[in-house]
Structures are given as C-alpha cells and as structure tokens.
Write a structure and sequence with these properties.
The protein is of the alpha/beta class and 326 residues long. 21% of the residues lie in helices and 31% in strands. It has two domains: 3-138, Beta Barrel (Elongation Factor Tu (Ef-tu), domain 3), CATH 2.40.30.10; 150-277, Nucleotide-binding domain of ferredoxin-NADP reductase (FNR) module (Rossmann fold, 3-Layer(aba) Sandwich). The longest helix has 14 residues, at 3-16. It binds flavin-adenine dinucleotide and FE2/S2 (inorganic) cluster (FES).
C-alpha cells in the first residue's frame, strides 16, 4: 500500500468520527536532551489541529510519522541500537503527551521520549522548524474523579510524561492532594530535568516537572542511589501505611512497565482503592481497526475474559479489569 493511499484512508476514517481526531502537520519548536537518552520535543499546531489538541485529555496519545526524519550519525547512536537503527519505518509510533499549552491560536504539545529503536532515534534528529505528521488525539485518557481527596501518581520510567500532564490538571481541583511516586533503576535513569531537589522519605518539591504544578514527589530507585531504596510500588505502600485519609477518598493513577501496573493493581485491590492503569502495546493503526494492540480483560465478577483494543478502548483501563501479561 502506498503512503498517499494510506493517508487518504486514514483521513476518511478520521472524518467519520465527528472530527474528534485527525492528521495534522506540526512544527517542531524545540527538541532537547534532558539526560542520557532522554529528550523532550515540543510541537506546535495551528488551525483545526490547535482546536483539537487544546482539549487533549491526559493519557491520550498521538501517532507520529518519523519515516522522513534522518538517522543520527553512527557515533551518536548507542552501540546496542546500531544494528536495528537502519530498519525502515513503515508504521507511525505512539507517544503520550507530557504537556499541552494553549498560546492564543497556537497549541504546543510536549513529548518526553527515550531512544530505543529506529523511530525514536530519528526523533532525536528533529530540528526547530521541521514539520512532522501527527495523528491525534487518540484513545481514552485518565478519568479524573473530582470527588476524591488524594490522587497518587505511580510513575515508572517513561510513564513520567502523561502523569506530568495529569498532575497539572489535578492541581486545578480545589482541595485535592496530589503526590507523585517516581521510580527508576538508578538516579541516572530518572527521566527528569536536573538539578533534582532534596530526595526524602516525605513528599517534597524535588522534581521540577511535577513541582511546576505544586505536586510533591517521592523518588524510588532500585539500587538506592536516590530516595527510597526499592520499587516505586514499595515506596507507595509504605506511604499508604501511614496515610490518614480513608481509602475510598484515594485514587491511584499509574503509567509504566506492565509488572509495575500489575503490582499497583494488587496493592489497590487489597486496600479497596480505585486505580487506573495506562497500558502499552505495539500499535499500528491507532484507531481500533488492525487488532494488533489487544489487551485481555476480565468480565466483571467472572473468570471469563475478552479483548479490548489498547488504542481505542484504552490506553487507560480500570486496574481491576486487566489480565496482566507478566
Ligand atoms: C499509548 C502509548 C504511549 C507511549 N508513550 C510514550 C512516550 O510518551 N514516550 C516514549 O518514549 N515512548 C512512548 N511509548 C513507546 C513508544 O511508542 C516506543 O518506544 C516507540 O514506538 C519505539 O519505536 P522505535 O522505532 O524507536 O523502537 P522499536 O524498534 O519499535 O522498539 C524498540 C523496543 O521497544 C519495544 N517496544 C516498542 N514499543 C512498545 C510498546 N508499545 N510496548 C511494549 N514494548 C514496546 C520493542 O519490542 C523493542 O524491543 C508509548 C507507547 C504507547 C503504546
Ligand atoms: S493499533 Fe490497530 S487496533 Fe489498536
């Protein structure tokens, strides 16, 4: 199938959906490295794109066509990615948003990403003024429950992006206490801009990206090089042990590796806390047609399972409905 044909098919599908999503050209405003292997790219939309992206819900995602971007010079590509780097890119790649900013008629979105393969390596090479094709907004984002009093964000690795965006929205709810728990293997693998503040067992404004929305954070590292020594799930459990709020008033929002989501779901279930998880699957169409992103789900109150599409029905799910792949 040629690209123009794909483009027209996609465009027709988008329009059939009451124009809640579409294919747009976005201009690269900036693309900067914030740590080893971690980048933030800022893209600007105008016209219809700006109108739709202004209403972007945290947890929704976009699909970006990176096939036209050049590869970085070989010496800039980490050795372990060199073999895979030359693979051609047929499919767009899904990314969540870390921020959305409305500036008059223009809407700027920011994506936090890490380089793991041919498309994300090409993303590294985007320069100010380049134009990329973006499909979005896609999927269903986090359901913000304004009746809760405490929102806990469980961040694993690149899950930091959508949860930063969510923290900004939660901060607008009067009286809502928001605490982010951010985990990584070691302090160098935390996908946040340095310098970091004071890491302590109590929530502090230690991570700039969260403190912008006055969200306090607790950092957990597997090797103990910063903050709580252990997994982010352990850090949250120990915080919950001393928490005075009633469990029914708490909600947990998670984004990260599936193992972390499964453990968070168990912790939430055991304590009777509502919990939403943002799932990841390899994606192709991004709009529920190709069935490549199936997530096994449980029918409420039974052992029977069925499949939902991560791109269309998710990527955010109630933690109780998912059958995790471990
Ligand atoms: C809804 C959604 C939101 C995402 N948001 C972000 C984001 O904000 N920032 C970010 O850096 N990445 C995000 N990702 C992951 C991102 O799409 C992949 O890292 C990207 O597609 C990699 O493309 P690549 O060509 O560089 O590497 P590839 O060669 O395609 O992949 C490199 C390695 O990563 C694995 N991988 C790639 N995509 C996935 C996936 N979806 N699930 C499990 N394993 C995968 C592959 O199996 C392979 O081992 C998101 C994925 C989804 C589904
Ligand atoms: S990516 Fe095609 S159905 Fe989800």
């Amino acid at each position: 199938m040629t690209r123009p044909f794909l483009f027209s098919v996609w465009n027709r599908i988008m329009c059939d959906d009451g124009s809640k999503k579409g294919i747009f050209e976005a201009k690269v405003n900036s693309n900067r490295c914030i740590g080893e292997g971690f980048y933030r790219v800022n893209l600007g939309f105008c016209g219809d794109g700006a109108r739709l992206f202004a209403g972007f819900i945290p947890g929704q995602f976009v699909e970006i066509d990176l096939s036209g971007a050049p590869l970085p010079a070989m010496d800039k590509i980490p050795e372990k990615l060199r073999d895979a780097s030359g693979r051609s890119i047929i499919l767009r790649r899904p990314f969540s948003l870390a921020d959305v900013e409305v500036c008059g008629d223009v809407v700027n979105i920011e994506i936090l990403y890490c380089c793991v393969g041919p498309a994300s390596l090409r993303m590294m090479e985007l320069k100010e003024g380049n134009v990329v094709s973006v499909i979005g907004p896609l999927g269903n984002g986090f359901d913000i429950d304004k009746n809760k009093k405490v929102a806990l964000l469980a961040v694993g690795g690149m899950g930091a992006g959508p949860l930063q965006h969510l923290a900004r929205e939660l901060a607008k709810i009067p009286g809502m206490e928001v605490v982010a728990f951010a985990g990584a293997q070691s302090v160098d693998r935390l996908p946040f801009e340095k310098p970091f503040g004071d890491f302590s067992a109590r929530p502090t404004l230690c991570l700039n990206e969260f403190s912008k929305s006055a969200t306090k954070s607790i950092v957990a590292t597997d090797d103990g090089s910063a903050g709580f020594k252990g997994f982010v799930t352990g850090a949250m459990e120990s915080w919950l042990d001393s928490c005075k709020a009633e469990m029914k008033d708490i909600i947990i929002y998670c984004c990260g590796p599936e193992m972390m989501l499964a453990t968070m779901a168990e912790i939430a279930e055991k304590r009777g806390i509502d919990c939403q998880v943002s799932m990841e699957r390899r994606m192709a169409c991004g709009i529920g047609l190709c069935q490549s992103c199936a997530v096994e789900c449980r029918k409420k109150g039974t052992d029977e399972t069925f499949y939902k599409m991560c791109c269309k029905d998710g990527p955010v799910f109630d933690s109780r409905e998912v059958v995790y792949t471990l």
